[in-house]
Q: What sequence folds into this?
């Protein structure tokens, strides 16, 4: 009996539509339980807002345009901060990965700076930069910067000596060697760093917006919390998940493309 | 039998894991302990110290009225929690079952909470007709409310400050769309004012000390129109606690009424300001706040038609401003029986004046005859 | 001389490299300190915005002698450890489940991966509502932060165990408990340790966050808040430095434990 049942599962999970359906079973079940709990009122309304209310909140903010505006603002913030932090991180990471002298100079300080919680920096950043975009982008850039530096440094440093010597033998100039040999060899760790940096940037954005904001997804979260509208809070949490998925998915797509292109060029 | 132990592993483990996670979740939402009476206050003193000012609860807390009432009951513990996050944070603790009394909860968070299903009973009033001030940075060039358009202000969303500020703005033809409002708590607002990140904010006596330090000037105050624009707060009990311990509720109300009796009497004016100064602000700012105003004008525990109509009106405004999405039933909220019993027992039925729905006086109160410094 | 040869190791003499490394390593921080002190002496920024390093050190000394600091550090540490252990234990169980059971993986993994997309701090309002803003709420938040890294690493590590090892367990007719304790856990140990180490670091970050966003209570994050509310930048900087130092202790301890565990296992 169990043999034939598991055969069905195995067949279903072999294809990705099948896997998607199976993956949706538990969420769907939870959704039903949620709906029933809310209808029957087994838990007080504030502890668990009804899915209908959450849906309604989603629809309301979508039709009023608030959802799109705030999402765009948050994503833009992350984009700007991440771009700055990752770019600077790539540069510093490469320098550190290549030059032992630089490592000796900077590593101890950097190790210390890496431990500073970005969240703890926010109050200071508010004092220095105000409550505006500048503060948020700066803090997000910082949060992206650290993991990128760490991973790029390691990735570039790990590029085998032999590869570097090969570049020298082929009389590549330093810039050419860097861009054609060293960096491409370090792409996987670079992208690990970028992925971590993006995740950090995203987290910091939400935290910074919870602190002080007039717009953005974190602001909607804070507002929902202050006004005790937890259906709104849940709706924003779900939106954050979807947007997060989109943003991280985009990076993963870029990474795959780059690796494929690199493989073709090799 | 060569059965792969991995198969069929799912069931037992899955149930255990899910049960463990569920148990954890339930434990987190645990109910109240029977021997503690837990009071929450939506605010903190000047450097986050756990003291309040400006209302009856502050006097009750600083003067240990509740503790004295239960001094003879060794198995009853009194716990106070002061919430930096003000009303919204207090509401969260109320919702998760960590509080029994919301003492001094402001009008907006109380209305918002009720609209979202928090089950409380309005026992007695804590203060009414409270003045708010608009503090602005001197360089901002703001002289009047109308000048606020296109400036950056902060607002602690969800507190009765927001509601009072919104109504002031509405009365002057402005709304949250004209000026940019940043959601900041009180500490954040003060810091932002000092560094110039915002141009102004609405607030209370803490702004007066900022003015004394030269950081802001006060551009507007609702003192003249406090009957219309003032903010209010009250003392609530959770329905659960009331059902379980009605006799304790009565004793708590008795203690608050005693404190109110002390606080409203002009004879005690300087003593009251001194009790309030435990929150870290000098007595002089309270004197200024109450300049030309009798203590009993704000510190009255009665539930009269004025209070009821204020809350009805506020509930309607809150709905209108889109801060809540459901209408709320204000009438069934009030539970004056404990208050009435306490007033009767302490012979204070005619101590405070009562007002009708339009603010006109219905009955006189003995407190109006009290004078400063007759002791 | 090509720039590449600059990265090659030089032949070393006994003590000099160590001294040289320390001096070089301290050079940059020392320079920054000097610049900082210089800015303050030259009054380039008002002193209430940027106190001098001397003032910060003085404040640190004051706070230390005040005795409250110890309580704060201990309170923060207690939260980290409680949340970390709870989250890691839950994460380990769930990770083992996903790693060993195909059914569980197919049914639950998509939901878990979707949950992982949601930024951790987005849960602050909801947790605060379900558990209150006090100790329970803070520890719940820290627990949540430690959960996901442990799950992911445990799950992956168990899946990475070669099939041959698992079949060995089948051949030896291991029951489920033996399968877990003798094959799955030891085989996945390095990956599990990585996950646990990650979780410790995330738990620390979450503790700071919890203390900043939830109710006031003893703790280093609370001191940071206090400095912010009272507008005492020296206190803020002191709190930030202590937080950084503690973070350093955590990450180094975690790395040390990881190294020890891995060498012990290999040895």
A:
């Amino acid at each position: 009996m169990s043999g034939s049942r598991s055969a069905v599962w195995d067949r279903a999970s072999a294809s990705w539509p099948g896997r998607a359906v199976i993956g949706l079973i538990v969420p769907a079940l939870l959704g039903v339980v949620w709906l029933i709990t809310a209808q029957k009122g087994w838990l007080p309304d504030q502890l668990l807002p009804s899915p209908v209310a959450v849906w309604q909140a989603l629809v309301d903010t979508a039709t009023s345009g608030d959802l799109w505006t705030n999402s765009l603002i948050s994503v833009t913030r992350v984009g700007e901060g991440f771009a700055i932090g990752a770019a600077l991180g790539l540069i510093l990471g490469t320098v550190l990965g290549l030059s032992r002298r630089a490592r000796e100079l900077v590593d101890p300080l950097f190790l210390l700076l890496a431990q500073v919680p970005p969240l703890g920096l926010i109050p200071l950043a508010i004092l220095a930069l105000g409550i505006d975009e500048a503060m948020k982008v700066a803090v997000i850039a910082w949060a992206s910067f650290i993991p990128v530096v760490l991973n790029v440094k390691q990735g570039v440093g790990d590029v085998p000596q032999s590869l570097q010597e090969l570049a020298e033998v082929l009389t590549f100039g330093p810039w050419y060697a860097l861009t054609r040999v060293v960096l491409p060899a370090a792409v996987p760790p670079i992208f690990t760093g970028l992925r971590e940096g993006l995740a950090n940037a995203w987290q910091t954005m939400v935290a910074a917006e919870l602190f002080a904001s007039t717009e953005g997804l974190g602001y909607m979260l804070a507002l929902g919390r202050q006004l005790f509208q937890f259906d709104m809070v849940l709706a924003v949490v779900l939106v954050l998940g979807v947007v997060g998925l989109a943003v991280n998915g985009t990076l993963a797509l870029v990474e795959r493309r780059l690796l494929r292109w690199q493989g073709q060029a090799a | 039998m060569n059965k792969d132990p991995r198969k069929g592993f799912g069931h037992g483990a899955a149930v255990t894991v899910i049960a463990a996670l569920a148990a954890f979740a339930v434990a987190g939402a645990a109910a109240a302990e029977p021997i503690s009476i837990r009071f929450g206050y939506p605010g903190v003193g000047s450097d986050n110290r756990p003291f309040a000012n400006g209302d009856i609860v502050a006097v009750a807390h600083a003067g240990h009225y509740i503790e004295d009432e239960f001094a003879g009951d060794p198995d009853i513990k009194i716990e106070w929690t002061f919430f930096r996050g003000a009303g919204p944070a207090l509401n969260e603790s109320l919702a998760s079952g960590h509080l029994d009394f919301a003492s001094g909860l402001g009008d907006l968070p109380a209305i918002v909470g009720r609209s979202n299903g928090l089950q409380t009973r309005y026992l007695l009033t804590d203060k009414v007709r409270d003045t708010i001030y608009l503090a602005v940075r001197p360089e901002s060039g703001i002289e009047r409310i109308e000048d606020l358009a296109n400036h950056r202000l902060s607002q602690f969303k969800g507190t009765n400050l927001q509601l009072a500020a919104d109504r002031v703005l509405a009365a002057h033809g402005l709304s949250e769309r004209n000026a940019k409002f940043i959601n900041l708590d009180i500490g954040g607002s003060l810091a932002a004012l000092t560094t110039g990140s915002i141009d102004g904010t609405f607030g209370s006596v803490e702004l007066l000390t900022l003015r004394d330090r030269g950081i802001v000037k006060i551009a507007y105050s609702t003192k003249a129109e406090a009957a219309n624009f003032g903010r209010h707060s009250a003392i609530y009990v959770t329905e659960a606690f009331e059902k379980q311990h009605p006799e304790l509720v009565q004793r708590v109300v008795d203690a608050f009424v005693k404190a109110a009796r002390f606080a409203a009497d002009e004879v005690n004016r300087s003593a009251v300001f001194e009790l309030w100064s435990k929150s870290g602000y000098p007595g002089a700012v309270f004197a200024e706040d109450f300049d030309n105003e009798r203590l009993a004008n704000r510190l009255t525990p009665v539930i009269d038609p004025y209070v009821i109509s204020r809350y009805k009106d506020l509930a309607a405004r809150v709905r209108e401003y889109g801060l809540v999405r459901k209408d709320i039933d204000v009438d069934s909220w009030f539970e004056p029986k404990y208050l009435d019993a306490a007033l009767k027992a302490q012979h204070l039925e005619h101590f405070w004046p009562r007002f009708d729905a339009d603010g006109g006086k219905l009955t006189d109160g003995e407190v109006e005859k009290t004078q400063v410094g007759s002791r | 001389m090509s720039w590449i040869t600059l990265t090659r190791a030089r032949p070393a003499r006994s003590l000099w490299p160590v001294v040289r490394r320390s001096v070089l390593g301290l050079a940059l921080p020392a320079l920054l300190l000097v610049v900082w002190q210089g800015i303050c002496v030259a009054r380039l920024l008002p002193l209430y915005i940027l106190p001098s390093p001397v003032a910060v050190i003085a404040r640190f000394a004051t706070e230390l002698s005040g005795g409250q600091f110890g309580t704060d550090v201990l309170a923060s540490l207690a939260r980290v450890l409680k949340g970390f252990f709870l989250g890691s234990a839950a994460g380990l169980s769930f990770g083992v489940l996903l790693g060993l059971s195909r059914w569980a993986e197919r049914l639950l993994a998509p939901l878990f991966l979707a949950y992982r997309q949601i930024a951790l701090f987005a849960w602050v309002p909801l947790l605060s509502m379900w558990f209150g803003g006090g100790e329970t709420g803070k520890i719940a938040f820290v627990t949540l932060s430690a959960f996901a890294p442990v799950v992911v690493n445990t799950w992956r590590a168990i899946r990475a165990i070669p099939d041959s090892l698992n079949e060995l367990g089948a051949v030896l007719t291991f029951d489920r408990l033996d399968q877990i304790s003798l094959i799955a856990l030891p085989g996945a140990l390095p990956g599990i340790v990585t996950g646990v180490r990650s979780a410790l670091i995330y738990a620390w970050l979450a503790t700071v966050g919890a203390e900043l966003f939830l109710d006031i209570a003893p703790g280093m994050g609370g001191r940071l808040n206090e400095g912010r509310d009272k507008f005492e930048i020296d206190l803020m900087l002191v709190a930030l430095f202590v937080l950084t130092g503690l973070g350093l202790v955590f990450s180094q301890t975690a790395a040390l434990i990881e190294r020890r565990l891995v060498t012990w296992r290999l040895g």
Summary: The two ends of chain B are 96 Å apart (CA to CA).
